[in-house]
Design brief:
With 504 residues, the protein is an alpha/beta fold. 34% of the residues lie in helices and 21% in strands. It contains 15 helices and 22 strands. Strand 14 and strand 15 form a beta hairpin.
């Protein structure tokens, strides 16, 4: 049988396709960035048609690079930026609006009103997450309120909603000619509309957000041989779509965090720390989220605690694109290494407010502690430090919620290519930081879910043989220095608060 799996990894800044073999080794890949559309301060959008076109391109280019055809691929897995919201016409395939990205803050007043009205606790109880600009349900409600003709189309059954996985699935399986309108449990759990315990759309939550049920996709497990359908485009032939996982859930699978208590931290556009809590939903009391971790076939769903940071790797992109002080992430790394410390400079990139564990949409970015001594190099180093201090806050909240003390942390994502960043993380946490040999764990997790569905791997336990440690960073500073840095970071956090009113 064919023994390659294809993983489509549709992220916040780019789309890529990677072909993996049974050993979890990348055979070939291709990646293309897409446009970041920012029509107003705090608004972030993507062009869904551009994302779909670039998905087709990366699939075709990765297959060409590997010299493979559709018959060589056993299954396709999809992983995606979560919460990013698309609405489109089922008859024409045309989006009604640009995709509203997970980082977008235009729904601040809407979600603030929910909390003030006393309905925030209902959302937390049913969906496992707080009312926040982060999640898709509020974005969909905003679109229904503000896009002319959309509500009427939705009520007539002509308008479809989906996160990016749903948009890609619909197009891959035929689009206007019978495309499948589906999502998996992990992506559905990021909408504020799904009952976390029952894994179904919740009537009370739909009523709360005034969402017509007809526009919602069907919720299915994350890995299944029959639920998703087969490709009718992009691959040049039919290939089973075997798995779909939101990006952070896919990284959990790729990092083989399959047992209760296993955790990983992904360093991408944002940072995302997840801990597997098994079949039990653990409700956070320290600012984290309860979410589905994954569901394989007909097995019970596994759940996770999650801490999410909106801006980490994208802060490095900001140094490149908005400030123009570096031309690449590698140059930012070199610049940061050119100074021994930040000289007391702290940067909190709260461009989309503060996510976990603070949940403060009123916060905005701040650079504090500046003097004439400071240079671009100090700011670059402070940017890397901000990623690590933000992750420290997540780890401490996770330990408090789970009642455990972490002794090491598995890491993945683009920022882990920086040895400086990972050494800073080990220093700030005071524990070992471990990177696997295969850094593309998000794409690999999607490939695992797809391959598991069709028998490339017999059980999820088979993934363990493919995981190998690449590098380990050990803390090199004492507790006094660690505490001083953490204290100053928290003072910097305080300076970001109460900057904008609702809707800012």
């Amino acid at each position: 049988m064919a023994d390659l799996v294809a993983a489509i990894d549709q992220g916040t800044t780019s789309t890529r396709c990677i072909l993996f073999d049974r050993a979890g080794t990348s055979v070939s890949s291709h990646q293309i960035e897409h446009d970041q559309i920012m029509p107003r301060a705090g608004w972030v959008e993507h062009d869904p048609l551009q994302i779909w076109q670039r998905t087709e391109t990366v699939v075709q280019q990765s297959m060409a690079a590997g010299g493979v055809t559709a018959s060589d691929i056993a299954a396709v897995g999809i992983t995606n930026q979560r919460e990013t919201t698309v609405v489109w016409n089922r008859r024409t395939g045309e989006p009604y609006h640009n995709a509203v990205v997970w980082q977008d803050t235009r729904t601040a007043q809407l979600v603030g009103d929910l909390d003030r009205a006393g309905t925030g606790d209902l959302i937390r109880q049913r969906a496992g997450i707080p009312p926040a600009t982060y999640f898709a349900g509020g974005k969909l409600a905003w679109l229904l309120q503000n896009v002319e003709g959309l509500r009427a189309a939705a009520e007539a059954g002509d308008a479809l909603f989906g996160t990016i996985d749903t948009w890609l699935l619909w197009n891959l399986t035929g689009g206007t000619d019978g495309g499948h309108h589906l999502t998996d449990v992990t992506n559905a759990s990021r909408t504020m509309l799904m009952n976390l315990a029952e894994l179904r759309w919740d009537d009370q939550l739909l009523e709360l957000f005034d969402i017509p049920r007809a526009m919602l996709p069907v919720i299915v497990p994350s890995s299944h041989a029959e639920k998703f359908g087969t490709t009718r485009t992009a691959f040049g032939g039919e290939v089973v779509i075997g798995g779909v996982l939101g990006d952070q859930h896919a990284a959990m699978v790729g990092q083989v965090c399959l047992d209760e208590g296993d955790a990983k931290n992904t360093y991408g556009t944002g940072n995302f720390l997840l801990m597997n809590t098994g079949t039990e939903i653990v409700h956070s009391t320290h600012g984290l989220l309860s979410t589905v971790c994954y569901q394989f076939g007909d097995e019970p769903a596994r759940y996770a605690l999650e801490g999410s940071i909106a801006v980490t790797g994208s802060a490095i992109q900001w140094l490149r694109d908005q400030l123009g002080i570096v031309s690449s992430a590698a140059e930012a790394d070199r610049l940061a290494q050119s100074v021994p410390d930040t000289g007391g400079l702290y940067f909190v990139p709260a461009f989309s407010g503060l996510f976990a564990p603070y949940w403060r949409p009123d916060a905005r970015g701040a650079i504090v502690g500046m003097t004439r001594f400071h240079t671009a190099a100090h700011l670059a180093r402070a940017t890397f430090e901000s990623i690590c201090y933000s992750s420290y806050d997540l780890v401490k909240a996770m330990e408090a919620d789970a009642g455990v003390t972490m002794t090491s942390l598995k890491v993945d994502g683009g920022v882990t290519a920086s040895g400086l960043a990972m050494q800073l993380q080990a220093d700030i946490l005071g524990i070992d930081v471990i990177r696997p040999v295969v850094p593309e764990t998000t794409a690999l997790g999607a490939g695992y879910a797809a391959g598991l569905a069709v028998g490339v791997w017999e059980t999820a336990e088979d993934f363990r043989a493919n995981w190998h440690e690449d590098r380990r960073w050990i803390s090199s500073i004492d507790q006094q220095a660690r505490d001083a840095g953490i204290s100053a970071w928290h003072k910097a956090i305080e300076r970001t608060l109460d900057w904008v009113d609702d809707g800012g």
